[in-house]
Amino acid sequence: MGPLSPIDAFGATTTHVYNRKEKLGVGASCEVFRGIQRNSGTTHALKIFKDGIWSNSCEHQREVEALSKLKHPNIVALHGREKELETGRTVLVMELCQGGSLHTFLQEPENMHGLGEKEFFIFISDTCAGLKHLRSCGFVHRDIKPGNILRTVLFDGTVRYKISDFGSSKNLEHEEGEFMSLAGTEEYLHPAMYVKAFVKRDIDSSFNNTVDLWSLGCTIYHACTGEIPFKPHGGVRHNRNIMYIMITCKPSDAISGSQRQEDADIAWQNELPKTCPMATCVSLRLDVQKMIAGLVEANKTRQWTFETFERSVQHLTSMKKICVVNTDKASLHDIYVSPLSSFKDFHHCVDREINTDSSSFLLFHKNKQLPCSSDVSLETVVANNDTPVILIHKTNGKHVLPHQTDPFPSFTSSMTMEEEIKTARKDCWAVSNYGKLVKSAEWIHKGLIQAREIMCSEYKEKRLYIQKHCQALLDIAQEKRSLLEMIGEWEGYRRNISQAVDVNVSQQYKQAKSLCLKIHNSLYEVQESLRQYSEPAVLGYHTGQNGISLQPQARCEENTKGFNTDIAGESDMSSRAQHLFEESKSIWRRMKQRQQDRPISEFEEMMHKKDKKDLQEICAYAVHLWQDFRQPKTQILYDRFIKHKTMYFQRNEDLTMIEQQLMIIKVDVKKLTEQLSQIWAFSGKAWSQLTDDLSISKYSSKESAIVMKENDEIRQKSEALLKQLKEVKMEDDLN
Predict the structure, then answer these.
(1) pTM
(2) Which of 76, 464, 564, 623 could be disulfide-bonded to 164 (CB atoms 3.0-4.6 Å)?
(3) Residues 395-418 pLDDT 10s
(4) Rounded CA gap, 67 and 95, in Å?
């Protein structure tokens, strides 16, 4: 068929005009075009039935009936019925969804292996809301599939999904909730309906709205993976016997099945494939797998109900996303938790996500350590890719970032245009994947820098804490030493008067003096050790003959600045990767357009060859951007970080040992305090004895008065000394 003439290219309905080149879709009964209303300029989707038979069909009547009653943001709207002026064919004026169908969206190269997490949440939430309204109005859709779920983007950028194509729908309000007629699409058809349609056509069977649940489960799987869940060898429509076995004999926990070769056993899978974007998120993946398994269940007693599905969707969409940078593996993790989760719950989720013992790592957010056993709510933590939770392992690991990935598919001279377009789509996806690697490396890069700053801060804080309490102990020890010297001075004065040595006082004094000397020596040793760490070891290092050594005079700001220079050009790299993907996608679209416009001119043939060549060069450059620039750069940063972390934990362990020394010294200070009390007790007894021995009869009146006066003065000073001793109290700990 040749190109349309300018006149033939346009069509008109009662109130709309449309361009026949702007075809949005084609079905068995109709074609859909983008139309513009003459008076208002509003755009609509014009569903034009192919002939009068379809215009008067039950399918047409069912759709009009359903859309006349169903009014919901997640159900496509019917604006009216018109006639095509030239042919008189019936036209349904529908709400226009610019984004096409979910099936079309999954054909985009970046969605080749399924929707991303954010898009999936929108899809599942909107579809659930639409189905809930459908069911509340007494309807069953009977043909839920990606092609019948439309995607539109609103003026503010909000994405919305809408259920469409109600030609197979049925109102069950007057049929006691059951029906016997068949409708639907084979790949998404409920097993009971499949049996009646293709296996046992003569049996009498009735069905209810649970047929939508099975179709929904298949659609969710398709949305997650980009593929249908059940794939017999040769295809669903060419191997119905195996398809029948797959959907009727499926294990309860299986979510998909495939047959790679003819007569081969069915390979069941109970997990989403690794290529699925959600496969790396354990918490989300498990919930989605459980949902799919519950929906694609042939046993009526085990299949999920609509209520169970709705609760599951509510749970999924209410979950809180927390971004985590695992510094040990240089990897990113999106962890989904309940909004009511506590810090303890979050630690368990991280433990499950990275498959390690929760006691072996520390979590930080905005330079603050997150408690691991607290029941306090996690609601205050808002962690995205720019401000992620930083995970630092207590032990060192060694990880090598992926350097090479699978080779890009290449074009061959024997390929048909259809095969070339499939190859181009795979190339686009691979370029997109390299772009994601580059972007992830950027976030990991920033996360490693944040982790290093955290270690610097933690080290500084601990060192200052120890330094502060060392000084506090030194001040207390100095005070005890002064008291001991004072007691010694007055005890010497007593001995001069009495001409006698008190053995108890003498022994206790010697022990206290020895302990006091030990305390002071130990504290000075601690101070000397702390001087060696006057600058945190993790703030900088240089490599010499003996490997890594400290830079005691290095400043945190200077070293951090040097560390940060590694991320120069990060945004430029990300934008280049994004540009490469957009260019590759443009090539893919041009190739698809040429397929639709066949036969193509000689000029277009030449442009087709050029596009293939350009796409291969784009692929090669994407590999270069990752393998020769971004990956080595991040690997160097990661290796450097591991060295910093090693030094951090080594020096942190040294500080812990110093802290333990202070605890021992603290015990000695308490012991010294007890000894001082004992010395004073013995000395007090000695002074009392001396007072009793000083009788006025032994001296002349003049001498007696002088001695008693001196004795009173000594007593007063001694009592003041004892009072001062009692008022001195040691702190119980270093806090």
Answers:
(1) 0.82
(2) 76
(3) 766 666 666 667 788 999 899 999
(4) 11
